[in-house]
Protein backbone atom coordinates (compact mmCIF):
# COMPACT_ATOMS: atom_id res chain seq x y z
CA UNK A 1 0.00 0.00 0.00
CA UNK A 2 1.41 3.46 -0.91
CA UNK A 3 2.50 5.51 2.14
CA UNK A 4 0.10 8.12 3.45
CA UNK A 5 0.86 11.56 2.08
CA UNK A 6 0.55 14.86 3.84
CA UNK A 7 -2.35 16.64 2.19
CA UNK A 8 -1.69 20.14 3.53
CA UNK A 9 -1.97 22.53 0.61
CA UNK A 10 -4.07 20.11 -1.43
CA UNK A 11 -7.56 21.09 -2.49
CA UNK A 12 -10.19 20.39 0.14
CA UNK A 13 -13.07 20.70 -2.35
CA UNK A 14 -14.17 17.02 -2.65
CA UNK A 15 -14.55 16.79 -6.41
CA UNK A 16 -11.25 18.54 -7.11
CA UNK A 17 -9.45 16.58 -4.40
CA UNK A 18 -10.70 13.32 -5.95
CA UNK A 19 -9.40 14.36 -9.38
CA UNK A 20 -6.02 15.42 -7.94
CA UNK A 21 -5.61 12.13 -6.09
CA UNK A 22 -6.36 10.11 -9.22
CA UNK A 23 -3.86 12.09 -11.27
CA UNK A 24 -1.13 11.82 -8.62
CA UNK A 25 -1.56 8.07 -8.09
CA UNK A 26 -1.38 7.36 -11.82
CA UNK A 27 1.72 9.47 -12.28
CA UNK A 28 3.41 7.85 -9.30
CA UNK A 29 2.68 4.48 -10.88
CA UNK A 30 4.21 5.73 -14.14
CA UNK A 31 1.14 4.75 -16.19
CA UNK A 32 -0.41 6.48 -19.14
CA UNK A 33 -4.18 6.88 -19.34
CA UNK A 34 -4.17 4.29 -22.09
CA UNK A 35 -2.32 1.78 -19.93
CA UNK A 36 -4.71 2.41 -17.04
CA UNK A 37 -7.70 1.88 -19.30
CA UNK A 38 -6.27 -1.37 -20.62
CA UNK A 39 -5.51 -2.62 -17.10
CA UNK A 40 -9.03 -1.97 -15.79
CA UNK A 41 -11.11 -2.55 -18.91
CA UNK A 42 -12.57 0.95 -19.23
CA UNK A 43 -12.04 3.53 -21.94
CA UNK A 44 -9.01 5.71 -21.22
CA UNK A 45 -11.09 8.82 -21.93
CA UNK A 46 -13.13 8.11 -18.80
CA UNK A 47 -10.05 8.33 -16.59
CA UNK A 48 -8.93 11.47 -18.39
CA UNK A 49 -12.27 13.13 -17.64
CA UNK A 50 -12.12 11.98 -14.02
CA UNK A 51 -8.64 13.46 -13.59
CA UNK A 52 -9.82 16.74 -15.14
CA UNK A 53 -12.85 16.91 -12.86
CA UNK A 54 -15.35 16.57 -15.71
CA UNK A 55 -16.91 13.47 -14.13
CA UNK A 56 -16.40 11.38 -11.01
CA UNK A 57 -17.42 8.12 -12.68
CA UNK A 58 -19.31 5.57 -10.63
CA UNK A 59 -18.56 3.80 -7.33
CA UNK A 60 -17.55 0.63 -9.17
CA UNK A 61 -14.83 2.61 -10.98
CA UNK A 62 -13.53 4.06 -7.71
CA UNK A 63 -13.48 0.58 -6.16
CA UNK A 64 -11.56 -0.81 -9.13
CA UNK A 65 -9.03 2.03 -8.87
CA UNK A 66 -8.63 1.40 -5.14
CA UNK A 67 -7.80 -2.21 -5.90
CA UNK A 68 -5.46 -1.25 -8.73
CA UNK A 69 -3.48 1.24 -6.63
CA UNK A 70 -3.78 -0.61 -3.32
CA UNK A 71 -5.31 2.41 -1.59
CA UNK A 72 -7.60 0.41 0.73
CA UNK A 73 -10.84 2.29 0.13
CA UNK A 74 -9.37 5.81 0.04
CA UNK A 75 -10.60 6.55 -3.48
CA UNK A 76 -14.09 5.22 -2.80
CA UNK A 77 -14.27 7.48 0.26
CA UNK A 78 -13.19 10.47 -1.84
CA UNK A 79 -15.70 9.47 -4.52
CA UNK A 80 -18.49 9.40 -1.93
CA UNK A 81 -17.52 12.86 -0.71
CA UNK A 82 -17.41 14.12 -4.30
CA UNK A 83 -20.86 12.64 -4.94
CA UNK A 84 -22.19 14.87 -2.15
CA UNK A 85 -23.83 12.23 0.03
CA UNK A 86 -21.86 9.12 1.01
CA UNK A 87 -24.97 6.92 0.95
CA UNK A 88 -26.94 8.60 -1.81
CA UNK A 89 -26.12 6.24 -4.68
CA UNK A 90 -26.39 3.09 -2.60
CA UNK A 91 -29.74 4.17 -1.14
CA UNK A 92 -31.13 4.97 -4.59
CA UNK A 93 -29.98 1.60 -5.90
CA UNK A 94 -31.45 -0.28 -2.93
CA UNK A 95 -34.72 1.54 -3.49
CA UNK A 96 -34.63 0.57 -7.16
CA UNK A 97 -34.05 -3.10 -6.31
CA UNK A 98 -37.04 -3.05 -3.96
CA UNK A 99 -39.23 -1.49 -6.63
CA UNK A 100 -38.05 -4.08 -9.17
CA UNK A 101 -39.12 -6.90 -6.86
CA UNK A 102 -42.53 -5.29 -6.29
CA UNK A 103 -43.23 -4.07 -9.83
CA UNK A 104 -46.47 -5.02 -11.55
CA UNK A 105 -44.78 -4.59 -14.96
CA UNK A 106 -41.38 -3.55 -16.29
CA UNK A 107 -40.18 -1.94 -19.54
CA UNK A 108 -36.52 -1.69 -20.38
CA UNK A 109 -34.11 -0.35 -22.99
CA UNK A 110 -30.55 -1.71 -23.13
CA UNK A 111 -27.71 0.24 -24.73
CA UNK A 112 -24.71 -2.11 -24.53
CA UNK A 113 -25.32 -4.91 -22.02
CA UNK A 114 -28.09 -7.41 -21.43
CA UNK A 115 -30.30 -6.61 -18.44
CA UNK A 116 -29.36 -8.46 -15.28
CA UNK A 117 -32.54 -10.55 -15.33
CA UNK A 118 -31.43 -12.05 -18.70
CA UNK A 119 -27.78 -12.68 -17.90
CA UNK A 120 -26.44 -16.23 -17.86
CA UNK A 121 -23.75 -16.95 -15.28
CA UNK A 122 -20.83 -16.78 -17.73
CA UNK A 123 -22.00 -13.45 -19.14
CA UNK A 124 -22.52 -11.95 -15.68
CA UNK A 125 -19.10 -13.14 -14.52
CA UNK A 126 -17.32 -11.69 -17.57
CA UNK A 127 -19.17 -8.37 -17.28
CA UNK A 128 -18.47 -7.96 -13.57
CA UNK A 129 -14.84 -9.02 -13.98
CA UNK A 130 -14.42 -6.39 -16.70
CA UNK A 131 -15.58 -3.88 -14.09
CA UNK A 132 -12.67 -4.80 -11.82
CA UNK A 133 -14.19 -7.41 -9.51
CA UNK A 134 -12.40 -10.65 -8.71
CA UNK A 135 -12.10 -13.34 -6.03
CA UNK A 136 -14.82 -13.73 -3.42
CA UNK A 137 -16.45 -10.41 -4.25
CA UNK A 138 -16.86 -11.44 -7.88
CA UNK A 139 -18.42 -14.75 -6.83
CA UNK A 140 -20.78 -12.97 -4.45
CA UNK A 141 -21.90 -10.46 -7.07
CA UNK A 142 -22.47 -13.19 -9.68
CA UNK A 143 -24.62 -15.15 -7.23
CA UNK A 144 -26.61 -12.03 -6.42
CA UNK A 145 -27.18 -11.33 -10.11
CA UNK A 146 -28.34 -14.89 -10.73
CA UNK A 147 -30.88 -14.37 -7.97
CA UNK A 148 -32.34 -11.38 -9.81
CA UNK A 149 -33.60 -13.66 -12.57
CA UNK A 150 -36.27 -14.90 -10.17
CA UNK A 151 -38.15 -11.67 -10.87
CA UNK A 152 -39.32 -13.13 -14.20
CA UNK A 153 -40.06 -16.64 -12.93
CA UNK A 154 -43.25 -18.11 -11.52
CA UNK A 155 -46.91 -17.92 -12.46
CA UNK A 156 -47.29 -14.43 -10.98
CA UNK A 157 -44.16 -12.97 -12.62
CA UNK A 158 -44.74 -9.45 -13.98
CA UNK A 159 -44.83 -8.63 -17.71
CA UNK A 160 -41.36 -7.60 -18.89
CA UNK A 161 -40.57 -5.87 -22.18
CA UNK A 162 -37.05 -5.05 -23.24
CA UNK A 163 -35.66 -3.35 -26.32
CA UNK A 164 -32.09 -4.40 -27.00
CA UNK A 165 -29.83 -2.17 -29.04
CA UNK A 166 -28.20 -4.23 -31.78
CA UNK A 167 -24.90 -3.37 -30.13
CA UNK A 168 -25.85 -5.68 -27.24
CA UNK A 169 -25.91 -8.63 -29.63
CA UNK A 170 -22.81 -7.50 -31.52
CA UNK A 171 -20.62 -7.49 -28.40
CA UNK A 172 -19.76 -11.16 -27.82
CA UNK A 173 -17.91 -12.72 -24.93
CA UNK A 174 -14.34 -13.81 -25.49
CA UNK A 175 -15.39 -17.34 -24.54
CA UNK A 176 -17.37 -18.63 -27.54
CA UNK A 177 -19.10 -21.36 -25.54
CA UNK A 178 -20.28 -18.91 -22.88
CA UNK A 179 -21.52 -16.51 -25.55
CA UNK A 180 -23.48 -19.32 -27.17
CA UNK A 181 -25.01 -20.22 -23.79
CA UNK A 182 -25.99 -16.60 -23.28
CA UNK A 183 -27.73 -16.35 -26.64
CA UNK A 184 -29.48 -19.67 -26.05
CA UNK A 185 -30.65 -18.35 -22.70
CA UNK A 186 -31.96 -15.23 -24.42
CA UNK A 187 -33.89 -17.33 -26.94
CA UNK A 188 -35.43 -19.40 -24.16
CA UNK A 189 -36.38 -16.27 -22.16
CA UNK A 190 -38.26 -14.97 -25.19
CA UNK A 191 -40.43 -18.09 -25.04
CA UNK A 192 -41.83 -17.07 -21.64
CA UNK A 193 -45.34 -15.64 -21.94
CA UNK A 194 -44.56 -12.65 -19.73
CA UNK A 195 -41.45 -11.62 -21.71
CA UNK A 196 -41.30 -9.54 -24.88
CA UNK A 197 -37.95 -8.86 -26.56
CA UNK A 198 -37.37 -6.43 -29.40
CA UNK A 199 -34.14 -5.53 -31.16
CA UNK A 200 -33.35 -1.98 -32.22
CA UNK A 201 -31.24 -2.21 -35.41
CA UNK A 202 -28.24 0.03 -35.87
CA UNK A 203 -29.91 1.51 -38.94
CA UNK A 204 -32.37 3.25 -36.59
CA UNK A 205 -29.68 5.85 -35.98
CA UNK A 206 -29.58 8.34 -33.11
CA UNK A 207 -32.61 8.65 -30.86
CA UNK A 208 -33.72 10.13 -27.54
CA UNK A 209 -32.37 7.23 -25.43
CA UNK A 210 -28.99 6.91 -27.14
CA UNK A 211 -26.39 5.98 -24.49
CA UNK A 212 -29.06 5.77 -21.77
CA UNK A 213 -30.04 2.44 -20.22
CA UNK A 214 -33.59 2.86 -18.92
CA UNK A 215 -35.91 0.70 -16.82
CA UNK A 216 -39.53 1.66 -16.12
CA UNK A 217 -41.20 0.08 -13.10
CA UNK A 218 -44.95 0.27 -12.77
CA UNK A 219 -46.26 -0.38 -9.28
CA UNK A 220 -49.49 -2.08 -8.29
CA UNK A 221 -50.93 1.40 -7.60
CA UNK A 222 -50.37 2.39 -11.24
CA UNK A 223 -47.50 4.79 -10.47
CA UNK A 224 -44.44 4.49 -12.69
CA UNK A 225 -40.85 5.40 -11.83
CA UNK A 226 -37.71 5.02 -13.95
CA UNK A 227 -34.15 3.95 -13.28
CA UNK A 228 -31.71 5.59 -15.70
CA UNK A 229 -28.07 4.56 -16.11
CA UNK A 230 -25.49 6.35 -18.23
CA UNK A 231 -22.63 3.86 -17.85
CA UNK A 232 -21.03 5.13 -14.65
CA UNK A 233 -23.94 6.20 -12.45
CA UNK A 234 -27.63 5.57 -11.92
CA UNK A 235 -30.57 7.81 -11.08
CA UNK A 236 -34.02 6.94 -9.77
CA UNK A 237 -36.47 9.25 -11.57
CA UNK A 238 -39.77 9.70 -9.73
CA UNK A 239 -41.04 13.14 -10.73
CA UNK A 240 -44.10 12.60 -12.95
CA UNK A 241 -43.19 15.01 -15.76
CA UNK A 242 -39.67 13.57 -16.05
CA UNK A 243 -40.98 10.00 -16.14
CA UNK A 244 -43.49 10.94 -18.84
CA UNK A 245 -40.74 12.49 -20.99
CA UNK A 246 -38.75 9.29 -20.71
CA UNK A 247 -41.81 7.23 -21.58
CA UNK A 248 -42.41 9.27 -24.73
CA UNK A 249 -38.79 8.68 -25.71
CA UNK A 250 -39.18 4.95 -25.04
CA UNK A 251 -42.33 4.79 -27.19
CA UNK A 252 -40.43 6.43 -30.05
CA UNK A 253 -37.60 3.89 -29.73
CA UNK A 254 -40.11 1.01 -29.67
CA UNK A 255 -41.59 2.27 -32.93
CA UNK A 256 -38.12 2.00 -34.51
CA UNK A 257 -37.45 -1.52 -33.22
CA UNK A 258 -38.06 -4.82 -34.99
CA UNK A 259 -41.25 -6.67 -34.13
CA UNK A 260 -40.98 -9.35 -31.43
CA UNK A 261 -41.19 -12.09 -34.08
CA UNK A 262 -38.50 -10.51 -36.28
CA UNK A 263 -36.39 -9.84 -33.20
CA UNK A 264 -36.50 -13.51 -32.27
CA UNK A 265 -35.33 -14.40 -35.77
CA UNK A 266 -32.53 -11.85 -35.45
CA UNK A 267 -31.34 -13.38 -32.16
CA UNK A 268 -31.50 -16.91 -33.54
CA UNK A 269 -29.51 -15.82 -36.61
CA UNK A 270 -26.92 -14.24 -34.32
CA UNK A 271 -26.70 -17.52 -32.42
CA UNK A 272 -26.24 -19.49 -35.61
CA UNK A 273 -23.36 -17.20 -36.60
CA UNK A 274 -21.39 -17.99 -33.45
CA UNK A 275 -18.44 -20.20 -34.53
CA UNK A 276 -18.16 -23.63 -32.98
CA UNK A 277 -15.35 -24.12 -30.48
CA UNK A 278 -13.17 -26.90 -31.94
CA UNK A 279 -12.09 -27.92 -28.45
CA UNK A 280 -15.60 -29.04 -27.51
Automatic annotation (TrEMBL):
Residues that span the membrane, as ranges: none
Name of the molecule in the record: Transcriptional regulator
Domain HTH cro/C1-type: from-to ranges: 22-75
SMART domains, per database record: HTH_XRE
Amino acid sequence: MPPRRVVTGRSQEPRRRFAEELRLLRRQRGESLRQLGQALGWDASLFGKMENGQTIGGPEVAEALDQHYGTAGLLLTLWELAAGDPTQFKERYRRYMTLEQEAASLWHYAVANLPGVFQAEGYARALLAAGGLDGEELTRQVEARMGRREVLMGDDAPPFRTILSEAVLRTPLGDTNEWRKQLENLVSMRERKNVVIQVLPQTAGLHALTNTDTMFLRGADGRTVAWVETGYSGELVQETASVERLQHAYDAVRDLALSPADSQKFIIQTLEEVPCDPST
